[in-house]
Write a structure and sequence with these properties.
Blueprint (H helix, E strand, L loop, with lengths): L8 H53 L14 E6 L4 E4 L18 E7 L10 E10 L2 E10 L1 H49 L17 H50 L6 H30 L7 E3 H10 L8 E5 L4 E3 L2 H18 L4 E8 L6 E8 L21 H6 L6 H11 L3 E5 L6 E7 L5
Parallel strand pairs: 7-9
Antiparallel strand pairs: 1-2, 1-5, 3-4, 4-5, 6-8, 9-10, 10-12, 11-12
Helix pairs in contact: 1-2, 3-4, 4-8, 5-6, 6-8
Length: 455
């Protein structure tokens, strides 16, 4: 059965439509034939019953001699006594025995459908049987009417359905096949285009049909996905190129220092050369750690929902810093709870403080507060320094990986241009935002996180 069942959506839709229409057509045909036959039977019974009741009244009064010829639509009349003797009959049943297969036992009216051989038997007869008491005993009146009209209607309707049904099913199959083919044509075009797209062809896009239906929305969603894949691919290539560039510089300097140390025979110069090499190794370690963290962030699943006191996390990050160049002032609201990773949120605060310490002149301020909104409360963490600030045109660029506004100065201070990028990625991973905003003096970096719902 599985091998016989169609494998394509188009074929399954066609078979399904044909099966449904065939079932509906069969039910409608049976209902139509049943209603038609019932109506025609009622019409035949009405004429026969009227004739039978009239003859039965004559028999009850002993006036069978006054029996008139059959009404229109009545084929025969036969009157039989309790012993089966025919008392009266129409000419077409002259000298014929009683047509009743069994003798009636009590007065009443009954309806039968028989084939009367003496009338030719080409059509069925609807027989009305009326039994009544007379002065001579019990008498049964049989009045029959032909069902030729019923049989003819049944035959005509059956023939019409036998011819029209397959034609209708063929039409349904053809229309369904064509319609599903037209509907699925764009899907096949999308599939064929996606099948040809490789990692080097992410700039290609699938065709969007002008139908504004589910297929068009599928194509738009596919193109949006391809946009994200292309963006991710470009970002990965840029990241690899930038990382290679960043690694090349300290490795080159380290190699030079080691070569100089080998060439210099004066032991008094070795401590200075080794100290410089250790500084470059430390820089390489920090860069490798940042690159590893970025890779983990990109591949990380949603943050585990752990309720944290953000004020305690920020206070702990500030309190653990020793030897900062400029003092850090804090103004932390209490009872600000968020859901996320304490380790990652601490890294966000640390990176923001590192950036502020790098450029501050004499002061760094950390402020934590909450704001209300139509969709709930928001925790707002601000890190402000009194340094040169960030030009408006660069307030978004500073969050790109390996970006330095002052390349030489950043290198002197040990920055690789990854701190703010890591901080933003971690914030985004917690469902928040990190932006550089307007400040009267220096740089003002603002983290916004959704406050945890009250349990």
């Amino acid at each position: 059965m599985r091998r016989l069942w169609p494998t394509t959506v188009r074929a399954r839709a066609t078979v399904g439509a044909v099966v449904v229409v065939a079932a509906a057509l069969a039910l409608a045909s049976f209902a139509l034939l049943g209603l038609l036959e019932a109506e025609l039977l009622r019409n035949a019974e009405r004429d026969a019953a009227r004739q039978a009741e009239t003859v039965a009244q004559l028999a009850a009064t002993g006036d069978l001699e006054r029996m008139r010829p059959p009404l229109h639509g009545v084929d025969f009349v036969q009157v039989v006594n309790a012993r089966g003797r025919v008392l009266r009959a129409t000419p077409n049943l002259a000298a014929a025995p009683s047509i009743a297969p069994v003798k009636p036992l009590r007065p009443g009216t009954a309806f039968h459908t028989w084939r009367i051989g003496t009338l030719g038997g080409e059509h069925r007869q609807r027989v009305v049987q009326v039994t009544t008491d007379t002065p001579q005993g019990m008498v049964t009146v049989f009045v029959g009417t032909s069902l030729r009209d019923v049989d003819a209607a049944d035959d005509t309707t059956t023939a019409a359905l036998a011819v029209g049904g397959p034609l209708l099913l063929a039409t349904v199959a053809l229309v369904t096949w064509r319609v599903t083919g037209r509907a699925l044509g764009p899907v096949e075009a999308i599939r064929a285009e996606v099948a040809e797209i490789t990692d080097r062809d992410l700039h290609r896009r699938v065709p969007v049909p002008p139908t504004r239906d589910e297929v068009a929305r599928l194509a738009q969603t596919m193109n949006t996905t391809l946009d994200r894949l292309e963006s991710a691919g470009n970002r990965q290539r840029e990241f690899i190129a930038d990382a290679s560039h960043e690694l090349r510089s300290p490795i080159t300097v380290l190699r030079t220092q080691l070569e100089v140390a080998l060439a210099v025979r004066d032991p008094e110069l070795w401590p200075e050369l080794i100290s410089g090499a250790l500084e470059d190794i430390e820089r390489l370690q920090r860069l490798a750690s940042d690159l590893l963290l970025l890779a983990r962030i990109d591949a990380a699943r949603p943050v585990a929902a752990v309720r944290l006191d953000l004020g305690s996390v920020v206070g702990g990050a500030v309190g653990s810093r020793l030897g900062d160049r400029v003092p850090v002032g804090t103004e932390l609201a209490s009872g600000v709870e968020v859901e996320g990773s304490e380790l990652w949120l601490t890294r966000v605060v640390t990176n923001l403080l590192d950036n502020a310490q790098r450029y501050a002149v004499g002061r760094v301020d950390v402020v934590l507060r909450t704001t209300g909104g139509p969709h709930g409360r928001t925790a707002v963490l601000e890190v402000v320094d009194d340094g040169p600030g960030i030009p408006p045109g660069d307030r978004e660029r500073v969050f790109e990986r390996f970006t330095r506004l002052d390349d030489a100065r950043s290198r002197d201070h040990g920055g690789a241009g990854l701190g703010l990028a890591i901080a933003r990625d971690l914030t985004t991973h917690h469902g928040g935002t990190l932006t550089a905003e307007e400040s009267a003096r220096g740089a003002r970096l603002v983290v916004r996180l959704p406050v945890a719902a009250r349990g």
